[in-house]
């Protein structure tokens, strides 16, 4: 990485670890066979794919046949929701009920909104509060006789707050003992995998999504965990790859890289968490102490070790982002998937911010290569950029009110 620039956007993506890249390299050209081929070229690659599957299953504490490799969390989330719905539609005429939180990633939010618009599901949004966390009582009240699926993001990708996934799992397990038709539970664990317990048995989930590129693996590969016995139908037709759940030639090189990234994560997780959490706390304290007109969005305690989201008064977030970039600092105003949108973040609106507050937000996300010096330099540059932008903003407001008189 370029040491002259400061990268603080690890929630968007992480650099591929050197050991991951080393593991992947032979499968680009030397071991290039199609994993589905029966000859030795294919079998050699499939052996490596199966090794990655074994590592993934060990990490999630599940069966190997419960691991479905995908192109990433967006596909995994789509497969989880649409696949469950398709399986339900085969044997039922009643419109099923789906529950999600108000600040899911767009790939869950828009999928469910589209299905609702098409009349295929009845949709309920669980409110989130100022601390960025849902209340179990709201979930319990939202459950209906026709509830098919509950989907809740483990760690929010914009503000980093953590939902009580294991508690939700226990509630649904209890409810399911009294029901003929089981309520399925899905979590988008994309931002959680690197820092929190993803033992699927402890969480009580039936489906879990994740991406390799958030844990120093390659882009374009991910996992959908599907609990054995879960009624789900594939949404992509073709061959019988991935237990007939996900057709298409396997991204073998990416899958092998994912397996290595998971192995490294499992070995170093606790050490990395402590280091990154200490840096996050240092950053939050420094920003709140040294900068005026700032608020931290979401719970101070129940958050990811790697994410801090701030709102700055009298500043427009896109301008702040671009000025920081010009000064060698890479941050984000929210999800990378939404960076082309000029609308205020639905996540920040969901926790009660006004549009103008949401527009002045900045997501700072740390990773294993982040240093304390980088954070000191970042805050120093941030203060200078804010001073410049607020001065311009103040002059524009004076001009505006002068014209109104």
Overview of the structural elements:
- The protein has two domains: 6-12 and 269-404, Aspartate Aminotransferase, domain 1, CATH 3.90.1150.10; 18-264, Type I PLP-dependent aspartate aminotransferase-like (Major domain) (Aspartate Aminotransferase, domain 2, 3-Layer(aba) Sandwich), CATH 3.40.640.
- With 405 residues, it is an alpha/beta fold.
- It has helices spanning 18-24, 26-29, 40-60, 73-91, 106-117, 136-142, 165-176, 200-203, 241-244, 252-290, 317-326, 346-350, 355-359, 372-404; strands spanning 6-7, 67-70, 97-101, 122-126, 147-151, 184-188, 207-211, 222-226, 294-296, 307-312, 329-330, 361-365.
- The model has no long low-confidence stretch (mean pLDDT 92).
- It contains 14 helices and twelve strands.
- A seven-stranded mixed sheet has the order 2-8-7-6-5-3-4, with helices on both faces. A three-stranded antiparallel sheet has the order 9-10-12.
- α1 (18-24) packs antiparallel against α10 (252-290), α10 packs across α14 (372-404) and α11 packs across α14 (372-404).
- α7 links the parallel β5 and β6.
């Amino acid at each position: 990485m370029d040491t002259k620039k400061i990268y603080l956007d690890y929630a968007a993506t992480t650099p591929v670890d050197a050991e991951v890249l080393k593991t992947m390299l032979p499968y680009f050209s030397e071991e290039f066979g199609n994993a589905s081929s029966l000859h030795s070229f294919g079998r050699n690659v499939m052996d490596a794919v199966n090794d990655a599957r074994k590592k993934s299953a060990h990490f999630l504490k599940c069966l190997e046949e419960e691991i479905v490799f995908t192109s990433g969390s967006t596909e995994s989330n789509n497969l989880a929701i649409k696949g469950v719905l398709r399986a339900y539609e085969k044997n039922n005429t009643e419109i099923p009920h789906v529950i999600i939180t108000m600040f899911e990633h767009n790939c869950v939010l828009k999928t469910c909104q589209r299905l609702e618009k098409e009349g295929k599901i009845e949709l309920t949004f669980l409110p989130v509060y100022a601390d960025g966390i849902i209340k179990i009582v709201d979930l319990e009240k939202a459950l209906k006789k026709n509830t098919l699926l509950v989907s809740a993001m483990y760690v929010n990708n914009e503000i980093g707050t953590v939902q009580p996934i294991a508690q939700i799992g226990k509630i649904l397990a209890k409810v399911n003992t009294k029901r003929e038709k089981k309520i399925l539970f899905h979590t988008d664990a994309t931002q959680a995998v690197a820092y929190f317990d993803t033992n699927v048995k402890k969480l009580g989930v039936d489906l879990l999504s994740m991406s390799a590129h958030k844990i120093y693996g390659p882009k374009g590969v991910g996992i959908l965990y599907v609990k054995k016995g879960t009624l789900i139908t594939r949404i992509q037709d073709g061959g019988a790859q991935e237990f007939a759940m996900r057709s298409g030639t396997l991204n073998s090189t990416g899958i092998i890289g994912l397996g290595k990234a998971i192995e490294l994560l499992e070995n170093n997780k606790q050490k990395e968490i402590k280091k990154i959490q200490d840096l996050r706390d240092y950053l939050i304290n420094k920003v709140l102490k040294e900068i005026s007109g700032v608020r931290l969005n979401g719970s101070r305690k129940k958050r990811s070790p790697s994410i801090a989201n701030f709102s700055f008064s009298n500043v427009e977030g896109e301008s702040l982002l671009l000025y920081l970039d010009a000064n060698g600092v890479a941050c984000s105003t929210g999800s990378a998937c939404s960076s082309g949108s000029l609308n205020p973040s639905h996540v920040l609106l969901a926790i009660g911010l006004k549009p103008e507050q949401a527009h002045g937000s900045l997501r700072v996300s740390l990773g294993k290569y982040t240093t304390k010096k980088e954070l000191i330099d970042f805050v120093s540059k941030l203060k200078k950029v804010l001073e410049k932008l607020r001065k311009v903003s103040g002059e524009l407001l004076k001009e505006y009110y002068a014209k109104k008189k």
